[in-house]
Every structure is written in C-alpha cells, then in structure tokens.
Amino acid sequence: xxxQKILVPYNFTTHDDKGLDFVIRTFAYLKNVxxxxxxxxxxxxxxxxxxxxxxxxxxxxxxxxxxxxKEKQDDLEIAKQHLINNGFSKHQVSCIFQPRKKDIASEIxxxxxxxxxxxxxxxxxxxxxSHFFTGNVFIKVVNALxxxxxxxxx
Length: 154
Prior knowledge:
The protein has helices spanning 14-27, 53-85, 104-114, 130-134, 137-144, and strands at 4-9, 33-41, 93-99, 119-123, 149-153. The protein is α/β, with parallel strands linked by helices.
C-alpha cells in the first residue's frame, strides 16, 4: 500500500503539464507513491429524440459532445502514459474520469477527502480576471482541505 497518495487534477493545459513535470521530478522513482490523475467533465445530457428535423440537428451536436468526451478520456490516458514513461510503474498511476456534478473545487475537495489522498497538486495561473467573480479553485481547495498537503505549481 502506498504511503503517499497524490491527487493531480488535470484539465489538459500547459499549466497542468507543469504540474505533471513537478510530479515526475519529485516522485518518479519513489516506490511508495500512488498518483491519480483526475478530470471532471461536463456530462452529455440525455435527450429523448423523435423524428423531427430539429431533433436530428440536436442529435448530431450531442454525438459531437460525446466524441469530445471520449477524446478527453483518451488524452487523460496519454497523460498517465507520460508518467509511466518517466519513472512510474503502471500500478502507481491511475485515472479518475467522472462526470462533474458541482464546481471543480468542490469535486477536488470531495475526492481528496473520500479517497483519503495525502496530497493534491494544483496549478495556479496569475492575473485571470474571471477569478475575481468566480473565485479561484486553489484558494477554495486550500481553505477547505485539512490534514492534506496542497502543493501549488505555478
């Protein structure tokens, strides 16, 4: 069993890649570490389709959304493989790809607490105006998690 369970939220940005690089540099050759890459996606809605032309167009759009969801899941597996290629064993790295029910910060907090992670690796982008209105994920996570190390990579 791993002594250190690390949750790495991953949203396919260059900032997230910096987080992966940090994880590789810091933990790659330690045997008692378990890494979980996490992505919460917006679920594709279930819609009852009938034979109208409007519904056919909607069906096409929903199919595109489902295809993008599959691409993101594949991209998460690629990130997992990147960790494996850089020193982690297959047994040390897992992916958590689940539908989002709340905001991202709440999803991270709930997952970290329920699965008893010891550490959460977050990235931080400075100066984003939208944070003024929506709040910052890392601030919400840092304030909410107790007895869990939160490492912010910028």
